[in-house]
User: Which sequence fits this backbone?
């Protein structure tokens, strides 16, 4: 994880533009990308924490970034999709002098993380914080809502036109959370959120299953996996639940459905498998090498490394299987980490790098390891306010039991590996009452191998355990939790 996270991170340092921002990719010369650079800001923080760059190198890079952003053309406070090095907007399709609220949101999410991270007393760190505050106060989210009672993605400044309403479910949740939490007078009301993003509850599909996984939001089979990544590089879905859905369970189910399709339902000639899965937006890994949002309903045999690797918080063992495969599969190696995409069928890859694919790998791997970026963003008081205004509960009301352990419906098992930072297996569990909790391990012969107790609190807890002479990797066990009120919750696990 260290090796490949660092190689990917280097896209935002060794591969960065002189502006400090990330290049859009490998094919547009000196054009820099706003959204991908927002993920890059988070990646720079990760690299600083790991010591891959010094604090001085980190702040120097961030100073370049905020100075460029401050001098760049903005449109009602929002940035455009792409920029030239002189700060003028670079055309993106028919967007010439156009504000892009989604790309701006990815950047602002990264900047809020930076504002929480760079708390030193030096002049450079103060400049970073002051710049973040200035941007936060001047993006006119309310303007982008127009008269439609919903946020709009784009503002064409040349003819004063707003277009493309942002309605869920897609990558736009972060725009609404930021817009709700923004300072007066540029914020939006909860009514705009409810009408626009939630469509007054119409965003939810109740009691809908794919491969026996509940999926309340989004298109059939979940769509491209970036829906579970882009808003959630900074927003922690484990802490997000409203009256409609628990966002952690939504994202885990989406990832499991994507993987299940690749392993069991995709065309056999694509040669997907346990170590080759993950469909999302990427360049092609087979002719004609085109960029496309890939999903179970739009599949041409192309795997994107960012899909499984950015899903580390949701499926750590399954993501690790992909990481091991990619580490030894030189076809999929690129200049900075892995190639953007590859085809197992043709044994070819697209060597380009793409900022919006590189960044989430670094950040979501780190969120799995220690929650670094989640903690920086979620402690921001404006984000806390926004989540409350969006109807998110202060603490999710999980059902009692192993609330974060989503069983693989194909095997009826929950695959576990030891946490790489802490070296133990970790099972999250939720209790309706505090007290002594008992955990009983049985093997397939129903023999008791371990029987242990611990004191638990009301709500969320973690049960940590290690291998023993009788509890071995590669084996299947039933772990039964007996709660303080004598209820039993069994879970079939396979340890790795």
Assistant:
């Amino acid at each position: 994880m260290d090796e490949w996270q660092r190689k990917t991170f280097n896209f935002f340092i060794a591969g960065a533009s002189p502006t400090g921002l990330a290049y859009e990719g490998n094919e547009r010369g000196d054009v820099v990308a706003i959204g991908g650079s927002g993920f890059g800001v988070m990646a720079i923080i990760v690299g600083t924490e790991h010591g891959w760059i010094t604090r001085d190198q980190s702040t120097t890079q961030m100073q370049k970034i905020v100075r460029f952003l401050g001098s760049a053309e903005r449109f009602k406070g929002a940035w455009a999709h792409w920029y030239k090095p002189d700060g003028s907007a670079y055309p993106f399709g028919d967007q010439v002098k156009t504000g892009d609220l989604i790309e701006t949101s990815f950047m602002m999410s990264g900047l809020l993380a930076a504002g929480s991270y760079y708390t030193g007393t030096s002049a450079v760190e103060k400049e970073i914080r002051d710049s973040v505050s200035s941007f936060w106060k001047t993006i006119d989210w309310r303007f982008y809502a127009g008269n439609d009672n919903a946020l709009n993605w784009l503002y064409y400044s040349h003819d004063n036109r707003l277009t493309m309403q942002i309605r869920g479910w897609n990558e736009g949740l972060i725009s609404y959370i930021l817009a709700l939490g923004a300072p007066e007078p540029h914020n939006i009301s909860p009514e705009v959120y409810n009408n626009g993003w939630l469509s007054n509850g119409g965003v939810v599909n109740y009691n809908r299953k794919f491969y026996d996984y509940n999926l309340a939001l989004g298109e059939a089979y979940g769509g491209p996996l970036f829906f579970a990544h882009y808003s959630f590089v900074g927003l922690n879905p484990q802490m997000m639940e409203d009256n409609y859905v628990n966002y952690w369970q939504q994202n885990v189910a989406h990832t499991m459905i994507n993987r299940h399709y690749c392993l069991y339902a995709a065309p056999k000639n694509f040669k997907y498998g346990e170590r080759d899965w993950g469909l999302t937006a990427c360049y092609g890994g087979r002719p004609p090498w085109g960029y496309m949002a890939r999903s179970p309903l739009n599949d041409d045999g192309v795997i994107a490394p960012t899909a499984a690797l950015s899903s580390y918080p949701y499926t750590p063992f399954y993501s690790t299987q992909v990481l091991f495969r990619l580490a030894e599969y030189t076809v999929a190696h690129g200049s900075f980490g892995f190639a953007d995409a590859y085809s197992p069928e043709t044994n070819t890859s697209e060597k380009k790098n793409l900022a919006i694919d590189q960044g989430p790998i670094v950040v979501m791997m780190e969120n799995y390891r220690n929650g670094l970026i989640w903690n920086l963003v979620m402690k921001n008081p404006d984000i806390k306010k926004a989540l409350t205004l969006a109807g998110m509960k202060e603490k999710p009301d999980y059902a009692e039991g192993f609330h974060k352990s989503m069983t693989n419906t194909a095997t009826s098992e929950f695959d576990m590996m030891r946490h790489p930072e802490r070296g133990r297996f970790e099972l999250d569990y939720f209790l309706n009452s505090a007290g002594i909790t008992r955990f009983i391990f049985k093997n397939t012969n129903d023999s008791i191998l371990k029987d242990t107790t611990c004191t638990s609190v009301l709500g969320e807890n973690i049960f940590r355990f290690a291998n023993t002479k009788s509890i071995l990797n590669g084996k299947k066990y039933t772990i039964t939790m007996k709660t303080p009120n004598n209820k039993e919750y069994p879970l079939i696990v396979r340890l790795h």
Summary: The chain has two domains: 2-389, 414-495. The first helix runs from residue 2 to 9. The longest strand covers residues 448-456. The chain has a mean pLDDT of 96.
